[in-house]
Amino acid sequence: MPEDEKPRKFETPYPSYDVLDKWDTPSFNDQTRRVVADRLSRHWTRRFFDEDEYALLRAVVDTILPQDERDESDRIPVESFLDEKLHHNVTDGTRHAKVPPQREAWRIGLAAIDAEAKKEKGSGFVALTPQDRHAVLQRIDTGKAGGPHWKDLQPKRFFRHVLLKQSVKLYYAHPLAWNEIGFGGPAAPRGYLRLGPDMRDPWEAREERRPRRAGQLP
Amino acid sequence: MSAVVSDAEFRPRAVDGRAPDVFHPGRFVSMREYREDEAVDFAIVGTGCGGGVLAARLAEAGYSVVAFDAGAFYRPLEDFASDEAEQEKLYWLDERISGGSDPLEFGSNNSGKAVGGSTVHFQMVALRFRPEWFKSRSLLGYGHDWPVDWREMWHYYGRAEKDMSISGPVRYPWGPKRGRYPYREHELSASALVLARGAEALGVKWSPTPTASLSAPNGAAHPCVYRGFCKIGCATNAKQSMLVTYVPRALKAGAEIRDLAMVGRIETGTDGRATGVHYHRNGEWRFQKARNVVVSGYSIETPRLLLNSACEKHPDGLANSSGLVGKGLMAHTNNATWGIMEEEIRWYKGPPSLAVCEHWNYEDHGKDFDGGYSFMSQGPLPTDFATTLVTNEGPFGTELRNWMAHYNHMAGLKIVGETMPQDENRVELSDEKDALDLPVPKVTFSLSDNDKRLVAHAEDFMEEMLGAAGAGNLFRTSSTAHLMGGCRMGDRRETSVVDASGRSWDIDNLFVCDGSLFPTAGGVNPSMTIVANSLRIADRIIELGRRGELN
Question: Could you give the ipTM of this predicted complex?
Answer without folding.
Answer: 0.96
